[in-house]
Design brief:
alpha+beta, 3 domains, 17 helices
Length: 579
């Protein structure tokens, strides 16, 4: 059975809930609780779930225009997979709900745990249950996932605290167990009038229930923490406003289509956001509407620019459709609440809506990717600017450019120029811990290899690692003697002009930022940008480079190699600039 299929089924189970027994878990809900999900397993009928998944999938195939033969073949394959999954899951489900009598579970997200890098906790009522029950419980779960139960239950990710059994889906459980136990024992339950309980009351009759609140500590953090520089000002302002003015949020819905129950009173309300005042609700709604306009216009601008040389362009009607579709997702304002809805009477047409939305997403995907890449390219340029600024500050302090690398008394390379720039990049504490008289990979210095210096990593390089290089032997030269602390090169020797000489280039292959032998040389540079050598980037069409005057430019990978040579040499006598 494919893992993805199992995951799909488990996600279905985790979304099935009824807001009638949150009192069970009240002892675990503190004022630091960010989100709470309650699951009522009594409402789960596996046969109905299976039928619903089958019918919805077939409706979706019809909406996508599958021909009759393909439709039948795909439906048969899905039915067979569902039967396999049913045979795998049903024994475990019956063991948990009937033999052990577990009728509900909850998922918590708590700020105190997030600070310990524990994203969420699953909790099951465990009052009056025995160690034998725990063994039965874990054996049933292990059978579903194709594993064997451990000999020692204490070695699992389960821990019993008071009347609950807690599970943390995270690694390094042995190191986190005590943290979770201490958290559970130290909890001071939130008062009955806490926002999280108001959110729960708002969905008290729903079958799908989710509640969230914003602890005061989070409000303070958002208010004081600087957001990434590539986030548009309009988005920053709306985010800060929302965090400061939202009291709570809740989500609800009906499972009537596949569990055979009567619909709840208002099944089309999927999510409610409670604001501090009615005027706040109207302001947030207006802000969301303006973001749609901003997003569509930005996406259109970028996509049009990327496709200006292409035969195909996205028709204007597609952008209008996307804008109109997104506007249908905007919430209604009811006094101090925003209510996001999906109408319950869509019936069989719902898969058509989903398919249509999928077409819109497909049309907008290049735009979304373009927006993201534009932001990453801008951040990359900002990183290079910080590096060149640090080079200038180093030169001001030492009357020398940083050496390509430092050496010991025997001329053996010790440290890259990137290490020497740390004090000029707000990394003085790290710099003072590095032993400069030992090699970069000495036992002591190895502990710093995995330190991530944000300005040394291009955000488009998803593999991480350093990807900014000097050009060895040109702008930077190595120390010649162990008794010479800094390099032998100054701005005065860049006779071609600092605005015409490359200081920093991007490379595609990541390396360790401390490595003194990682920089490319002129020969490798002249293999071309995005050519046979390492010089290149993950930005389409070229690389960002930093010049010694502090400016950052984008060089196309089609640049003439002789122009590239002239830009790389600091005193070649050429009179060229970046085209």
């Amino acid at each position: 059975m494919k893992t993805s299929t199992r995951l799909l089924f488990c996600c279905l189970l985790l979304t099935i809930s009824k807001a009638t027994a949150q009192e069970t878990f009240a002892p675990l809900i503190s004022e630091n609780c960010v989100a709470f999900v309650h699951v009522d397993l009594r409402k789960v009928e596996l046969d109905n779930v299976k039928d619903f998944v089958q019918k919805t999938a077939e409706d979706f195939l019809t909406a996508l225009g599958f021909d009759e033969r393909s439709h039948r073949a795909t439906a048969r394959e899905l039915a067979a997979e569902l039967e396999k999954l049913d045979l795998l899951v049903r024994p475990t489900f019956d063991t948990i709900t009937k033999e052990l009598g577990i009728r509900e579970l909850a998922v918590f997200v708590d700020l105190s745990l997030l600070e310990q890098e524990i994203p969420q906790i699953f909790a099951v009522p465990w009052k009056s249950k025995t160690d034998k029950d725990l063994e039965t419980f874990y054996t049933a779960l292990a059978a579903t996932w194709g594993g064997d139960p451990p000999d020692d239950i204490e070695a699992t990710n389960f821990v019993r605290v008071e009347d609950f059994l807690l599970f943390v889906p995270a690694g390094q459980w042995g190191e986190r167990k005590e943290l979770v136990v201490d958290w559970a024992k130290a909890i001071k339950p939130a008062p009955a009038n806490a926002p999280i309980f108001d959110a729960l009351k708002s969905v008290a009759g729903a079958e799908i229930k989710f509640a969230a609140a914003i602890p005061e500590q989070v409000r303070t953090m958002i208010r004081n923490a600087p957001l990434p520089p590539d986030v548009p000002e309009q988005v920053k302002n709306l985010l800060i406003f929302a965090v400061q003015r939202i009291d709570w949020a809740s989500a609800s819905g009906s499972l009537a289509p596949f569990i055979g129950t009567d619909p709840v009173e208002n099944p089309d309300v999927v999510m409610t956001i409670k604001m501090a005042r009615p005027t706040d609700a109207r302001q947030l709604r207006n802000g969301l509407e303006s973001l749609i306009e901003l997003g569509i216009n930005s996406a259109k601008f970028i996509v049009d620019g990327e496709m200006q040389d292409e035969d195909f362009t996205i028709p204007p009607l597609a952008w209008q459709f996307a804008k109109g579709f997104l506007r249908t997702l905007l919430p209604d304002v009811e006094e101090d609440k925003l209510k996001f809805r999906i109408k319950a009477d869509l019936g069989a047409s719902q898969p058509v809506v989903v398919a249509t939305a999928g077409v819109a997403v497909a049309l907008l995907l290049p735009a979304v990717q373009g927006v993201r890449e534009a932001a990453r390219r801008a951040q990359c340029a900002n990183n290079i600017k910080h590096i060149v600024l640090a080079i200038h500050n180093f030169h001001d302090a030492t009357n020398s450019l940083p050496p390509l690398y430092t050496v010991d008394a025997n001329g053996k390379p010790l440290h890259s120029w990137r290490v020497l720039l740390l004090p000029y990049m707000e990394q003085t504490v790290l710099y003072e811990q590095i032993r400069l008289d030992e090699p970069w990979n000495s036992p002591h210095n190895r502990q710093f290899h995995d330190f991530r210096i944000p300005q040394y990593t291009c955000p488009s390089n998803l593999g991480g690692g350093c990807c900014y290089s000097a050009i060895a032997g040109q702008g930077f030269v190595p120390n010649r003697r162990g008794d010479s602390r800094w390099g032998e090169h100054t701005f005065a020797r860049i006779t071609d002009g600092t605005s015409n000489t490359l200081a920093i280039v991007e490379v595609r292959e990541s390396f360790n930022w401390m490595d003194p032998s990682a920089d490319v040389d002129l020969e490798e540079l002249l293999m071309g940008i995005n050519g046979r050598g390492r010089v290149g980037s993950f930005h389409p069409g070229g690389i960002n480079v930093g010049l010694f005057d502090g400016s950052v430019r984008f060089i196309a990978d089609s640049i003439d190699l002789e122009v590239l040579r002239a830009l790389a040499t600091p005193a070649g006598g050429e009179n060229v600039s970046i085209p």
